[in-house]
Amino acid sequence: MSMTETATLPAPAVVTRRPGFFARLRYLEPSTLLWILLVAVLLFLVAVPIGKLLIVSFEKQGTGGFTLSNYFTAYGRARYIEALGNSLILGTGAAALASVFAVPMAWAVSRTDMPGKGMSWAMVIGAFIMPPYLGAIGWILLAGPNSGFLNLAWRWVTGSSEPLVNVYSFAGLILVIALHSFPLIFIFVKSALDLISSEMEDAANILGAGTWTATLKVTLPLVWPSIIGGIVVVFLETIALFGTPAIIGIPARINVVTTQLWQFFEYPVRVEVAAAYAMPLLLITMLIITGQKRLLARKGYVSQTGKGGERREIRLGVWRWPIFAYCMLVSLLAVIMPVAVLLQASFARAWGNGLSWSNLTIDNYTYLLFRHEMALTSIWNTLWYSATAASAAVVIAVLVAYIVARKLVPFGSALGFLAMAPFVIPGIVMAIGFYAAYAPPPLALYGTALIIILAFTARFLPIAFANASAAVRAVHPEMEEASRILGGGRLFTVRRITAPLILRSIIGGWLIVFIVASRELSSAVFLVGPRTRTMAVLLYDLSEAGNFEVLSAFGGLLLAITLVLVAIGMKLAGRDFMLRRN
Amino acid sequence: MPRLLLNGLGKSYGPLKVVDDVNLTLEEGEFVSLLGPSGCGKTTTLRMIAGFIEPTTGTISIDGQVLSAPGAVLPPERRRMSMIFQSYAIWPNMTVAENVAFGLKLQKLPNAEVRTRTNRILDVVHLGHLADRYPAELSGGQQQRVALARAIVVQPTVLLLDEPLSNLDANLREEMRFEIRRLHDEFRFTTVYVTHDQAEAMATADRIAVMNAGRIEQVDAPHVIYTRPRTRFVAAFIGRTNLIEGRLSEDEVGLDGFALKLGQIGGAPADLTQPILLSMRPQAMALHRGQPAQRDGYPLLPATISQRTYLGESWDYVVRPAESGLSLRVSAPPLQVHEVGEAVWLEIDPRQIAVVN
Q1: Is residue A297 very low, low, confident or very high in pLDDT (cuts 50, 70, 90)?
Q2: Can you state the angle between helices A449-473 and A375-405, rounded to 10 degrees?
Q3: pLDDT, tens digit, 9 for 90 and up, residues A176-213
Q4: Euclidean distance between the first and final Cα of chain A, in Å?
Q5: Confidence of residue A15 (pLDDT cuts 50, 70, 90)
Q6: A309 to chain B nearest CA, in Å?
Q7: N or C: which end of chain B has fewer CB within 10 A?
Q8: Cβ partners under 8 Å of residue A196, min gap 6
Q9: At the topology level of CATH, where does A30-58+366-582 sit?
Q10: How far is CA B327 from CA B245, B247, B304, B321, B350, in A?
Q11: Which residues from A are below 8 Å from B154, CB to CB?
Q12: In terms of C-beta distances under 8 Å and separation of at least 24 residues, what long-range contacts does A495-498 make, across chains too?
């Protein structure tokens, strides 16, 4: 058969000419060099700080000799152990309460004919974009034991001398954290519910199950992985959270891991002890995330994608209004009330005096903008640190994502692993790692803008990478091949074909990193110097000073800046650009 | 000198040989289809020709110049080929005209020429009125035409097509099949067309290369592939057939219940090994209600209809010859209706039988 074809072939001596050899070299070398460069950058950003953290935890202060004494110091006092326990209880409580807020709301918005779904959705977005520590300050104004508005109203109505609620308590802390973290569970669960066809419920109905039975026995079990996933994320965010526990927990004398770490950083700074003390946080996060991945990989749950089947809204009948009321209650607690009191306080001479013309002033804002020595600087710092970090993270992420997706080099997936690694490292732990690795000589970056930018870049690299990966994967390789076969080189093709196609999602990714970096507190607070304070850190400083009117005004500024950024993002990258599940 | 030459071409991933010793020549202007089931290596072969994949053995040359050899691959952009992809790969951020003009602009042609050639080719594929549309505003068939126009406007040395019609619905697929052939008759580009659809390959190609498990089993004109399949795989993969084992004794092939004269079997090769395998197409047999006149060398057997299926263009009968364990599929025209269980006479045309390996 094919033998007859070969009979006429010329001798294969031409092979030795290898005309494409140098061309090949030219096309291979840059990607290999880039690969080496990226490995170096990622090691610097991710591996060195975490490695240094580990080493420092076994080092004697000053001499650098091996010791276990840091661990004995870190776990040698009941107070420190108790803080660890408190963190775990806080994480569990906040995650549980957040799911109570989020799951019914997600179900109502996704599956039912509840009225005001758009409003509920907007409120969840509002709770999501509000920096957590602002919610905490709002709730101090609402539920402070003496002059919180809720307690004043309670005393006025009942004549009681006792406060109704006290935010300075463990329950208060759990409530405030749950109120700003429930949107995470909401987003997870809603996007899973959005994928379930009504036929799943119809199949249960036809076998005799009513609406409630079908919902409880079919719909909710189908989204269990998302509920669990959301709960896990909230738990991990909570145990790594610094702002809210510091603002509410420290006055309430509730010590958690993050606030304890902060105390190790008070003068004299004990990095070695802090490093040792941060280990459980790191280990718990890594174990839970890898464990969850294993668990989900084994069950066939994750593959329930696809849009097969029609989706109908469940008719709630008379239940429409109670469920709507529940969603509004959550919105009221999470967004409307805290923002309202915050704005009121920001325009008040004395916030306790309530709404009246004589109490109204813009002095708090003018003070911050024109007379305060740090406020404007911190705004400027925040904007340019975040912009630089977002740009660096996006550039690294796009390069890594492209190399990994197109398999340009062997072991490209190692790059992807490094880029995703910060995902399992709590921000506060990463900050301590950066402090340990780069604050002392030879780099001596403490107090510089650079160390903050580097830490932000590393911390938010996974967000940028997940975003860039999705964008690159969405461009079919044949799109590029079609250009190459017509005569476009690889770089030309990337510039003319790939770049325009991924630009929109990349802008979205840049904005997400920019926004989360602009409100980042837990890693910034360990790395700022006197002249490199960011808005979030300055806000925390102001909260320690206890001037709530100025504090609220600064919170108002931060909120305004965030809203402008989110509005730009929605305009450029689509309404739900921050809510995509990666 | 052939236009395109694949010489001992192979590609392995570890121990897995995806393409194994493929030899193929295409003369200038020839249209060859690589046909085979999924996973047979046809797309890998095509992508090696394009320069996207490096071969592990063998060479690819054009007009005598080696473009691909292990360790030395001229990148796709310097091969002056063009390709039509399974996903069309129409760039959604460019208009139809921009898509088509892309390759011409890369050749640094003057703007006026780019414009005239783009317009001319868009007229050829009947898309002249849609030049300023974006791909998202086009139907699947129109997108396919854009891909065709973009690939042929650059006048490639070799045109490559990777299952270009597999995403279209059946009617459109048939239309585009003739469209591709029409364009080939007009421009006569040397073409390699990968498909798993034999009707597509038959309708378009000058020659079909049937691939199986990384190897080319047979290269021939479509009607030869159909009537003279050389291997069991080709016989079974192309169309429907009855594969029957027989034993050779002297100049006769003995089958279950009857025998054929070897000399009457069309194109039987000289070197035969026992047992021999025959491919008997359903069209190689005829059914008769009454006993017809015996023709010399045409075996005539009494038989019974055991199953029937109506396929629209023909009847597909399963027939059992008496005194034989065989069960044969026989094709008959739509008006020739037999009931199941009916006794018939089965006449076999030995010229339409092929010996396969």
Answers
A1: low
A2: 40
A3: 999 999 999 998 898 888 888 777 777 777 887 777 88
A4: 53
A5: very low
A6: 22
A7: N
A8: A219, A222, A223, A304, A311
A9: MetI-like fold (1.10.3720)
A10: 13, 18, 10, 7, 17
A11: 486-487
A12: A497/B91, A498/A402, A498/A472
**Separation between Cα atoms, residue A149 and residue A143, nearest integer Å:** 6
In this predicted structure, what is the pLDDT of residue A580?
56
- Which of A190, A181, A189, A187 minimizes the C-alpha distance to A127? A181
d(CA B106, CA B132): 20
Cβ of B78 and A23 within 8 Å? yes
Chain B residues with beta carbon closer than 8 angstroms to that of A481: 50, 52, 76, 83, 85, 89
Mean pLDDT in residue range A489-498 = 88
Instruction: Write down the pLDDT at residue A318.
Output: 86
Measured distance CA(B103)–CA(B99) in Å, rounded: 8
CA B208 – CA B221 distance, rounded (Å): 6
Q: How many CB atoms lie within 10 A of CB B134?
A: 16
Tokens linked to B2: 């052939």
Under 8 Å between Cβ of A338 and A140:
no
Per-residue pLDDT of A242-281, as tens digits, reads 999 999 998 899 999 999 999 888 878 888 888 899 898 8
Average pLDDT over residues A118-135: 89
The yes or no reply on domain A80-307+325-347 and CATH 1.10.3720.10 is yes
**So what's the pLDDT on residue A13?**
36
- Length of chain B in terms of residues written: 357
Q: Is the pLDDT of residue A6 over 80?
A: no
Report the chain B residue with the minimal C-alpha distance to residue A21: B72
Helix (H) or strand (E) holding B19: strand B16-26
Count CB-CB contacts under 10 A for residue B57.
17
* Sheet containing B57-62: order of strands: B16-26, B4-13, B57-62, B65-69, B72-73
Task: Give the separation between CA B192 and CA B30, rounded to whole angstroms.
Answer: 9
Inspect the interface and report whether the beta carbons of B50 and A12 lie closer than 8 Å. Answer: no
Q: Do A484 and B216 make contact, defined as CB atoms within 8 angstroms? A: no
Phi/psi at B299 (5° precision): -60, 140
Residue of A nearest to B7 (CA): A6
Checking if the pLDDT of A26 tops 70, the result is no
% of chain A with per-residue pLDDT over 90: 36
Cα–Cα distance measured from residue B49 to residue A467, given in angstroms and rounded to the nearest whole number: 34
- Domains in chain B and their CATH numbers? 4-232 (3.40.50.300), 240-356 (2.40.50.140)
CB A88, CB A239: distance < 8 Å: yes
Helix axes of A48-56 and A271-298: crossing angle, nearest 10 degrees: 120
Tell me if chain A has a CB within 8 Å of the CB of B5.
yes
Q: What is the pLDDT of residues B259-277, one digit of tens each?
A: 888 777 766 666 777 788 8
Mean pLDDT, to the nearest integer, of B232-255? 87
Per-residue H/E/C for A1-62: CHHHHHCCCCCHHHHHHCCCHHHHHHHHHHHHHHHHHHHHHHHHHHHHHHHHHHHHCCECCC
Q: Locate the chain A residue with the closest alpha carbon to B64.
A: A14
Per-residue confidence (pLDDT) for residue A59, from 0 to 100: 86
Residue B310 pLDDT exceeds 60: yes
Least confident window among A342-351, B25-34, B144-153: A342-351
Cα gap B243→B240, rounded to integer Å: 10
Across A12-38, average pLDDT? 57
CB contact, 8 Å: B166 with chain A? no
Residue-by-residue DSSP string for A210-224: -HHHHIIIIIHHHTH
Q: Where in chain A is the domain with CATH 1.10.3720.10?
A: 30-58+366-582, 80-307+325-347
> What does the angle CA A214 – CA A216 – CA A222 come to, to the nearest 5 degrees?
90
Residue with tokens 């009979």: A7
Chain-wide mean pLDDT for chain A?
Answer: 85
